[in-house]
Amino acid sequence: MPVLGLIKEGKVPSDNRVALTPKQCKWLKDQHPDWDIIVEASPNRCYKDEEYSREGLELVTDISKADILLGIKEVPKSQLIAGKTYLFFSHTKKAQPYNQALFHTMMDKGITLIDYECLEHEDGQRLIGFGFFAGIVGAHNGIMAYGNRTKAFHLGRVKEVKDYRELIHTYFGLKLPPVKIVVTGSGRVAHGILEIMNLMDVQQVEPDEFDRHYAYPVYVHLKGRDLYKHKITKNYERNDFHAHPQNYDCTFKQYLPHAQILMNGIYWEPGIPPLFTHQDLLEDEFVLTTIADITDDAHGSVPCNLGDAPSEDPVYGVNVNSFEKTAPYLPEGIDIMAVGNLPNELPRDASRFFGEQLIKYVLPDLVAGGNEIIQRATMLEKGLLNPRYDHLVDYAKH
Predict the structure, then answer these.
(1) Which end of the chain is more exposed for a tag (fewer CB within 10 A), N or C?
(2) What CATH number does the domain located at 3-128+347-396 have?
(3) How many CB atoms lie within 10 A of CB 254?
(4) CATH architecture label of 131-345
(5) CB 7 within 8 Å of CB 87
(6) How far is the C-alpha of 190 from the C-alpha of 186, rounded, in Å?
(7) For residue 262, which of 227, 238, 235 has the smallest C-alpha distance?
C-alpha cells in the first residue's frame, strides 16, 4: 500500500499553506482505497490538525513510514529522511546558492526530489503552482503601496480578510486616481494580476495607446514579445529567446516616462536582460514610484529588487541615488513590494487550488510509477542528478 505523507513545514519563517486540504485527502482515500495518507501534526497550517482528523486522516509525529512526502517550501536539512521521495519547491533550479547545501544533503541521503516548479507541459507551461494567488496578493499589495505613497486612497492588508470572496468585497466603492500601470507576464501570476485590475475597474489599453492622457486608471499588459526583440532580426521567438537571451534587447524603457506602477509577473532567469538599468532610475523620464515585483528575483528583471521583504512589512524603499534600502514612501525613493510567500495571505484558497492541480496532474500517475512529465521534474533520483539538469553539474559538486 503506497503511503503519502503531508509533512509539517519546517522552514523559518513558517509557511501556513498545505499541499492537500483535509477534504482533498479524504477524496483521494475514497477514490483510491489502496492508498494511505498520513498527516504530520503541525500548529501552523491554515487547515488545523483537527480538520484533518475529522476527515479520518491519521495524525502522526513521525512521518517516516510515508513513501512520498508532500510539502511546500524547502525542507530543513535536519528534517530530511533518507531514501524518500519528496515533492516541494526546492528553489535550486536556478542554482540558487542559498540552497546548495540543501541540494547536497538530498544527494547524500539518496533522496528523490520532484520539484513542483519543474512540472511542465512539453511546451514549458507550468502544471502546478501558487502563481495565480501570488498575482492576486501581489497586485493588491502594489496598489496598497501606491495608495500609501500618494494618500489618494487606502487599502488594508489581504491577511485581514477571511478569504478571497471577502477580499473582493473590500474593493466595492474603491476609486483609484488616473494612474498608469504596466503588467508584465503571461502565466498564472499575470492572470492573478489581471484579475485584480478588473476587480478594481482599471481599464486595459493597447501598448501604442499607453502614452495618451486618461482621466481614469489604465493598464497595459506586456508579454514576452512586447518586451524583447532580437538584436539583429528585431523579432521575438520564445524558444530561441529562452535558449539565447543574450541575443535580445529589452524594450521596456519606452514605458518608463508614462507608468507610475509596475506589476511584474514575467519569468526571469540569469542571462535575461532586466526591464531597466540602475542608470535609468536616475533619468528624469523615470516616473515609476511603485513596483510590485511579484515573481521576486533579487537583482533580476527588476534590478532595484534588493531582496525579500517579510510578509508582515512587505514594502521597502530604495534610494535612487545611493541604491540603498530605506523606509518606503520617501520622496527620493522608489517603493518595492517583494515578498517570497505572497499566497500565505490567502492560504486556504491558495492551498485548495494547488491541491486540485496536484490531484489532477500528478498524484495518480506518480503513485502508478510516474510518467514523462514527472520524470522531467525529477531533479534528483535516489540522490543522483537527472541528466536533464546538467546545467547544475557544478552546483551539485561537493
Answers:
(1) C
(2) 3.40.50.720
(3) 11
(4) 3-Layer(aba) Sandwich (3.40)
(5) no
(6) 5
(7) 227
